[in-house]
Design a protein that fits this description.
The structure holds three protein chains of three kinds. By secondary structure, chain A is α+β, with helices and mostly antiparallel strands. Helices cover 29% and strands 18% of the residues of chain A. Chain A has four helices and seven strands; from the N terminus they run αβββαββαββα. In chain A, the strands form three sheets. Chain A has a three-stranded antiparallel sheet. A two-stranded antiparallel ribbon of chain A has the order 1-6. A two-stranded antiparallel ribbon of chain A has the order 2-3. The longest helix of chain A is centred in the N-terminal third of the chain and has 25 residues. Chain A starts with a helix and ends with a helix. Chain B has one domain: Orthogonal Bundle (Cytochrome-c3 Hydrogenase, chain B), CATH 1.10.645. By secondary structure, chain B is an alpha+beta fold. Chain C is mainly alpha-helical. In chain C, helix 5 runs parallel beside helix 11. The radius of gyration of chain C is 20 Å and the shape is globular. The N and C termini of chain C lie far apart (43 Å). The chains are: A alpha+beta, B alpha+beta, C mainly alpha. Chains in contact: A-B, A-C, B-C.
């Protein structure tokens, strides 16, 4: 009998307490961001698709087209081609494509490159209507950034 | 810090991919302070709520004997009264230097499992604080040869994952490709007690029990 | 009279739109996010767009269904909820029809809802719908008793069944101050009667089945939905009339007509409270729900009537 009433009072009080918490939460500020209309800053550590590094002194790429990244990629999504140019001893980079539909962002290519020519970009809102839009031409992207 | 969701492609043989910076440490400390302030809200809104208590008390009682038979680990085991935590019983990595407690339940019903998890929140925050206070300098990855040759024989290593004991069993035969690798996930054993537990219960109780066992189905279905 | 009916029906749709919007906004702010924001200024037109979407959906009639009953379900659920609004006194001169037995009429109309649920559940030819329907019926029937008993306490004090006279009897003091227990019991039972959380086991995403309106799509579903919001409005307005003094309030110019402003303020305050309850508590298990009605609400309301009768006699 005593349990009947104690249940009732303790239970009722807990319900009222819960309602007070919700009422307080109703008056507190919003913690979400309306995403497409406002954006938040992304950490520089974010790993988007890879890009060639623009060496500030030479004002061009550091890639020596050795092909290590192509060989070590577990998903086989990088294609590198070098070509011989007269007047230079080594090959220069002619083609660098990335098939992003297969890339798993593991970072092996970035780590294994002997000249540190690759880095992760910061692109996070990628959306397109066809698969071909994700076959990136990384060399062209670098040439667009050369001042 | 890791560059993507959770720890995507962050672990490497011999350590991790990159170091953390000061901003991360500051953000973590701010988070710890924020979370500690919210314990009160959680208690008032959920733990003391009579509707919640009525739906979780004396539901789905796992006796200690049944828990050991089915190989249940993690908070489910500790809710039944057995104080077995791999971080204390078979310590690994840096855990012996940390000072924390292992909360244990009494009856083994849904409410006890829930209370174990809530108490573990505070203990985890203590561990994080101690770790941040004693962060050493130095490299985050040790040198590992490019081609690892496995010695012949087998080896088993277990860690305390969020849901129980996660262990890897590796059998090598002298080459660089393992002969057998088995990953034992906690959710599989946690799920296996459901047929015996679910004899003659009401349907809404089944929902409560499945929620309190904290199963991750993709883990089971690998 | 016809004019009043037309106004009331258009009011029901307006009310459903406003309450739907309010519910989503309040749910959002309680969870510390904004509710709908895209359509219109801060999402005001969201419910309009939802209505257009629901009307445009294909009216699926499953194969093995009892055709008459299936089509009849939503209609039967929607029609009786309009009728109670005809007898509620919105203001001193604004009442469609003042019946002598107004309160009894309202209670009987809400009981027809039980039959509508059964028809919908049976006609769906789906065992889960039938389970949901039977549970909803048991819940509705169980909670009618506390409603009636708490109303009886007010009737004993006001000495009449007519709603207009009950409001006029609260000139000096509102009945909530004299009968707080009856008010609490009435609100709890009203929330349970309209199948709102935390008593919404028959309806919302219930544990394995979607309840008695699983098989309905488009217009049928929206009729149930309208019926539920109107039912909530009816419960809140009856509570206002019985306990909170109807249209009494600080005097306004054109007081006889503008009493409706105070009436709506009180009703929407109660509705706000009902919406907050939904987003605070977990769902009650079905046998605990019935336990609560029989073991707690009924004895207390009976005791309440006894005390009221004794006090009035003295």
């Amino acid at each position: 009998m005593k349990r009947y009433f104690s249940d009732l009072f303790v239970g009722g009080k807990s319900l009222v307490d819960g309602l007070v918490v919700t009422l307080k939460a109703l008056c507190q500020p919003i913690v979400t961001v309306q995403y497409p209309r406002e954006e938040i800053d992304i950490t520089p550590n974010f790993r988007g698709h890879i890009d060639l590094v623009l060496d500030p002194e030479k004002n061009t790429f550091r890639c020596i087209s050795c092909g290590m990244c192509e060989r070590s990629c577990p998903s086989e999504c990088i294609r590198v081609k070098g070509k011989k140019v007269e007047g230079k001893k080594k090959k220069t980079l002619a083609l660098f494509t990335l098939d992003f539909t297969k890339c798993s962002l593991c970072g092996t290519c970035v780590e294994i490159c002997p000249t540190q020519a690759l880095e992760f970009s910061n692109e996070y809102n990628l959306a397109a209507f066809s698969k071909e839009a994700f076959h990136y031409d990384i060399l062209k992207r670098l040439e667009e950034r050369i001042i | 810090m890791t560059g993507s969701r959770l720890t995507y492609c962050y672990y490497r043989f011999g350590g991790v991919y990159q170091d953390i910076d000061d901003k991360f440490v500051e953000a973590t400390r701010a988070f710890i302070k924020r979370l500690r302030k919210r314990y009160d809200i959680y208690e008032k809104l959920v733990t003391k709520n009579i509707i919640f208590i009525k739906r979780a008390e004396n539901i789905g009682i796992i006796s200690p004997d049944m828990a050991i038979r089915y190989g249940i680990t993690g908070p489910n085991l500790r809710g039944s009264g057995i104080a077995y935590d791999i971080r204390k019983n078979e310590p690994y990595s840096v855990y012996p230097e940390f000072d924390f407690e292992v909360p244990v339940g009494e009856r083994g019903d849904c409410l006890d499992r829930y209370m174990v998890r809530v108490s573990e929140m505070e203990q985890s925050l203590r561990i994080i604080e101690q770790a941040l206070d004693t962060l050493p300098d130095g490299p985050v990855r040790s040198k590992v040869p490019k081609k690892i040759k496995l010695a012949p024989g087998d080896c088993n290593f277990a860690v305390e994952a969020a849901r129980g004991e996660l262990s890897y069993y590796l059998v090598g035969d002298g080459t660089s490709v393992p002969y057998r690798l088995k990953i034992r996930v906690p959710s599989y054993s946690n799920l296996s007690c459901l047929p015996e537990l679910g004899q003659g219960i009401l349907l809404p109780d089944l929902v409560s029990i499945m929620g309190s066992l904290d199963l991750v189905i993709p883990e089971i279905d690998r | 009279m016809v004019f009043a009916v037309i106004i009331i029906i258009s009011f029901i749709f307006l009310n459903a739109v406003m309450m739907g919007y309010l519910e989503r906004k309040i749910a959002g702010h309680v969870q510390r996010r904004l509710g709908p924001m895209e359509v219109g200024f801060h999402g005001i037109l969201q419910l309009v767009v939802d209505g257009v979407k629901l009307v445009g959906k294909e009216l699926l009639v499953p194969v093995n269904v009892d055709r008459t009953l299936f089509r009849l379900g939503p209609i039967l659920s929607f029609t009786p909820v309009i009728l109670p609004l005809l007898v509620i006194p919105f203001s001193e001169k604004l009442q469609a029809r003042d019946l002598n037995l107004g309160l009894l009429f309202i209670v009987s109309m809400t009981s027809i809802n039980v039959m509508a649920i059964l028809v919908a559940g049976w006609g769906s030819n789906n065992k889960y719908s039938m389970f949901g329907a039977m549970r909803a019926v048991a819940q509705s029937i169980a909670y009618e008793i506390p409603i009636l008993l708490s109303m009886l306490a007010v009737i004993l004090m006001a000495n009449t069944f007519s709603l207009k006279e009950i409001v006029e009897a609260q000139q000096k003091i509102w009945f909530i101050l004299l009968q707080p227990l009856a008010f609490i019991i009435y609100i709890i039972s009203g929330v349970a009667e309209t199948n709102r959380a935390p008593f919404d086991l028959p309806e919302a995403e219930s544990e394995l089945t979607a309840g008695f309106h699983t098989e309905y799509s488009g217009m049928g579903f929206s009729l149930f939905f309208l019926g539920e919001y109107t039912n909530m409005f009816t419960v809140a307005s009856v509570a206002t009339v019985l306990f909170l003094g109807g249209w009494h309030g600080p005097p306004l110019p054109y007081g006889e007509y503008l009493g409706i402003v105070w009436f709506f303020l009180k009703v929407y305050f109660l509705l706000f409270f009902m919406i907050m309850i939904r987003w605070t508590y977990p769902r009650v298990r079905f046998d605990q729900l019935l336990n609560f009605a029989w073991k707690y609400l009924v004895p207390f309301s009976l005791a309440n009537i006894l005390i009221t009768a004794v006090v009035i006699k003295l």
